[in-house]
Design brief:
By secondary structure, the protein is an alpha/beta fold. 51% of the residues lie in helices and 10% in strands. The protein contains ten helices and five strands, in the order E-H-E-H-E-H-E-H-E-H-H-H-H-H-H. A five-stranded parallel β-sheet has the order 2-1-3-4-5, with helices on both faces. The protein is elongated, with a radius of gyration of 23 Å. The relative contact order is 0.11.
Length: 239
């Protein structure tokens, strides 16, 4: 594993020997490792923490399938339910295919058999940390886009919603009962506030927001709600 890879690996395993071995292997790669003996103890320390708290480095979870109390698969489901997107690498000492199939179908990144070979573990962790780093960048971009949308007036947001659906300025003016010139003013303001140099750039930002997971179940802003069902039609290129 390249030495410039940074991140924290969380290991949930009931076996203290395995915990120590994983910590040793990861430390040799310059990575931090935090260990937990149960799914419950991991949840206690992470259930209320946002995924990117305080600019923390990328992370991933090494998770044993067979755990006392809550199983690894149960923990995977609990994390998914609360919107935690931390990449998961499952560990198991059994060759039963049911567990890995269930884990991978539920979104696990990898499944390794114990005892782990150092090279396989390093490759899996490297991929997981890289994935988490990319996910964090996407979330940051989406947060920036939502902040820009928050700067739009109600009318600017209405005009924006029609534009990304492919409506012309004349059609928007007729629908909103305003003049085409007023529509053009709102369009200009919208491009400026959204930091978009083109219609394609504007639509790309709308797509980012529409696809953003709302795992916490919080209602989105009124602006993003208006844009949620927008569709970029081919005729939008003529606006």
């Amino acid at each position: 594993m390249p030495q410039n890879i940074e991140g924290t690996v969380y290991c949930v395993d009931r076996d203290r020997v395995t915990q120590a071995r994983l910590a040793q292997l990861l430390s040799a790669q310059g990575l931090g490792c935090k260990t937990f003996a149960s799914a419950e103890s991991f949840l206690d320390s992470h259930s209320h923490a946002p995924p990117d708290a305080h600019g923390s480095p990328p992370g991933c979870l090494l998770l044993e399938v067979e755990l006392p109390g809550m199983s690894g698969l149960d923990l995977q489901a609990a994390l998914a339910a609360e919107g935690n997107t931390l990449p998961i690498i499952f560990l198991s000492s059994t060759t039963d295919l049911r567990a890995p199939i269930a884990a991978l179908k539920a979104g696990a990144l990898d499944f390794l058999l114990k005892p782990m070979e150092a090279g396989s573990l390093a490759d899996a962790v490297r991929n997981a940390l890289a994935l988490d780093a990319r996910n964090r960048q996407v979330r940051l971009l989406r947060a920036q886009i939502l902040a820009r949308m928050g700067e739009l007036t109600e009318r600017e947001a209405q005009v924006m919603a029609f534009v990304v659906r492919g409506h012309t300025s004349k059609e928007i003016a007729q629908t909103l009962c305003i003049s085409p010139r007023t529509v053009e003013v709102h369009r200009k303001n919208r491009f400026s506030k959204m930091r978009a140099a083109s219609l394609a750039g504007l639509v790309e930002q709308v797509i980012q927001v529409r696809e953003m997971p709302d795992a916490a179940g919080r209602a989105r802003s009124a602006v993003s709600g208006q844009l949620r069902d927008s569709t970029y039609l081919t005729r939008a290129g003529n606006v």
